[in-house]
Amino acid sequence: MEISSRIPGFYNMTIEERKKYLIDLYNLSEEDAEQLLHHPSLPEETADKMIENVIGTFSLPLAVGLNFTVDEKDYIIPMAVEEPSIVASASYIAKIVREAGGFKTEATERIMIGQIQVVGCPDFKKAKEAILSEKDTLIQAANDAYPSLVARGGGAEDLEVRIINEHSSQYSQMLIAHLYVNTCDAMGANIINTMVESLAPVVEHLTNGKVYLRILSNYADRCLAKATCTIPPKLLASDGFTGEEVRDGVIQAYEFAASDPYRAVTHNKGIMNGIDPVIIATGNDWRAVEAGAHAYAARHGKYSSMTTWSKDEEGNLIGELELPMSLGIVGGASRVHPMAKLAYKILRVDSAKELSRVIVAVGLAQNLGALKSLVTDGIQKGHMALHSRSVAMAAGASGELVDIIADKLVEEKEIRVGYAKKLMEEYVK
Ligand code: NDP
């Protein structure tokens, strides 16, 4: 069966039916099918080897975002997240963008940065020159510390040096060396940390200073991925709103976020609503991606919108999202967590670059989903209807009662735990 991310009626299937659909669609092996059907979690013995002081595991719902076409390839997107309406909203927008030709993406080379901090140099200018004069030797030494990466076509490629706070007090003066490393398909934190640690003694010798920090920078501004979409207004029309009204509302909502950090933080949180679930489902480090993304949003000196929205000469809505993507398809938990391993089979990405490109497309879809709701019905209509089931469960409902109470909450427009408890009491009576 050809893999299409368009699966009409998926929402109405039972969990069992959805699993079976995916098993058939991907022709999953018996082992993978067994994992999906009967062991949808992390075994404690694996967890115990991943981190310290383990007392159990903590599960999140794992869902799939549908309808995504990115660079003319269909992707079904595994998303691990607790918040209702994220997956529905991403899938809804992906369907619109699909009709408009899909997302277009690109990515830079995957160059990650390792930092070495040197303090107490008797002469910082001379120290800088000394490091730069031995640049090739240092790059070679870094690569000698990780020959397997070089064998894969990656490795340390460049080195730069800056003097920070040159004219300030002795404590704030320092020299910072940046080692630029092509980490291939790994996020590269451990790779880079190994490399920069190995360089520390030579750097101390060259500078007559003291090396303190030797660590990856999560500001991965040489490891960027960008997604764009072009949507004719007619595809944006919704109940009571013309496509042009929705398009103009989205652009003005963007302008708000671009100019006001109070709005930008929430706007960007909505983008990460799409990105983090894929990062988590693929066993990547979401703190690293979050930190890099927010820093990038402030790269012009003021915290601003991660996306841009505008219109072209034909009146189409144009969206763009570019972010640092410090992630991998190997390393970390990506090949340890059994559900992450399965997530890669569903995603069908062959490289870290491809994963990065797909993830920024999801972030862009998520942003448009939130903005479209905000400029039309408001976020609460769709969100609270989906949230009603969590509210019912928080009030103690289980089994069939969850949907009964949730429907009542929506019908009476009172989606509150207190009211759900009252309904439960009446129902039990
Ligand atoms: P790993 O330490 O697991 O290293 C990835 C390994 O995968 C490589 O060393 C390489 O080992 C192997 N590999 C196999 N195929 C490839 C390929 N195609 N390309 C590249 N490597 C390949 O992971 P990372 O170095 O990526 O580190 C990520 C982890 O580090 C995450 O868990 C993160 O949470 C954590 N971390 C994050 C920090 C931060 O963000 N500041 C700081 C410290 C840790 P070999 O060559 O031997 O086969």
Labels describing this entry:
alpha+beta; four-stranded antiparallel beta sheet; 16 helices; 18% strand
SSE string, helices as H and strands as E: HHHEEHEEHHHEEHEEHHHEEHHHHH
Give me the side-by-side strand order of the main sheet: 3-8-10-9
Classification by helices and strands: alpha+beta
Low-pLDDT windows of residues = none
Report the major sheet.
4 strands, antiparallel
For the termini, the CA-CA separation is: 51 Å
Shape: globular
What share of the residues does DSSP label as strand, in percent? 15-25%
What's the count of strands?
10
Give the mean pLDDT: 95
The helix fraction, in percent, is 40-55%
Number of helices: 16
Q: Enumerate the distinct ligands.
A: NADPH dihydro-nicotinamide-adenine-dinucleotide phosphate
